[in-house]
Amino acid sequence: MxxxxxxLAGEAILSGPATVERSQEEVLESMVREHxxxxxxxxxxxxxxxxxxEDATQETFLRVVRHRGKLAEVEDPKTWLARIAWRxxxxxxxxxxxxxxxxIDDPDxxxxxxxxxxxxxxxxxxxxxxxxxxxxxxxxxxxxxEPLILSTIEEMSRQEVAATLGIDExxxxxxxxxxxxxxxxxxxxxxxxx
Amino acid sequence: xxxxxxQSGDPKHDDLDRALDAALARYAAVEPRPGLxxxxxxHLNTREVRSPHFGWWRxxxxxxxxxxxxxxxxxxxxxxxxYLPVAGREPVTIPKQVPSVVSVTKENSVGSPAQRxxxxxxxxxxxxxxxxxxxxxxFPSPQPLSEEEVALVRYVRNFPEEARxxxxxxxxxxxxxxxxxxDAGSGSLASSxxxxxx
Lengths: 194, 198
Fold this sequence. Notes:
The structure holds two protein chains of two kinds. Chain A is built from eight helices and no strands. Helix content of chain A is 74%, strand content 0%. Chain A has helices spanning 2-14, 17-47, 50-66, 77-96, 120-139, 142-151, 158-165, 169-193. The longest helix of chain A is centred in the N-terminal third of the chain and has 31 residues, at 17-47. Chain A starts with a helix and ends with a helix. Chain A is globular. By secondary structure, chain B is mainly alpha-helical. Chain B is 56% helix and 0% strand. Chain B contains seven helices and no strands. In chain B, helix 6 crosses helix 7. The chains are: A mainly alpha, B mainly alpha. Chains A and B meet through helix 2, helix 3, helix 5, helix 6 and helix 8 of A and helix 1 and helix 2 of B.
């Protein structure tokens, strides 16, 4: 047993900064492979542009690299990453200086491809609904919009949404409920007019 | 357009709710372009090479460069003794026996007609209480003695005979040089006139 401890201590002494740095790189790489999709989706939910979302994803992991000294202290890397991704996307929105609402003819705007499994009229209906929803969500107050769009990401639980936004879970539920209510009312009025 | 049933019995089964749920699911259901992980890792590796590790090195180089520039400016703009005011200088006494020693200076060797005020003072050129100089026609206006000139004055004071010999030798050399230049100039004029006659 004593010999085992000596061996461990020896390894600890021999594993200098190079080993520590290597392990940090491995941790970083595993974070990229495991969570890059989530980060991308968070960025896309905010920016609504594939190009900007990828840039924000790059920026997110760059920030992780800058703070890699704190990697060992992070208990929940997923939530930690989600928070950084959220901040990076919001910062990019401010830099862009434009509204969240996307113009219809924007080339980066997501295009709904008609599903072969659905009837054509259903596909068309869904496309128009998505289009209307995009505009309505963009028009929501930020306080209601942010928890709503994060909750749409399937990888995010309510608890993780709350941790990302820095609010409690009850506030998240309440705001999502209010946001959905507003959206339903506006969608109903939109489709009734047509 | 299909009308959405807004009459909610059970909210969970409300058509609008379902439609909204489906639309919200599609809202975030996007996939990144293939190879996102590879691009992110490649970008991180590139930035690692240009990371703060190299950043510290760059700061060091920049600091050295700034220090070198500051040093160069300091050396280049260091004020010399040339710019000391004349009035504050000590009186320099030159022996009366030494004729036109100052003609050895480079200004006088090129035939400058004006003499320095100290020689015109008759050998005992006291520069203390200097009166304002009259406006001279000489350009540039006389400057205070340089280090070399002060050294020359000191040499003349200490070794007058040697200074006299040097002065005579310099004069003869200047005369010889002028003669050679005149001969060379007349020779070229002659050859050109001969060519013109031809």
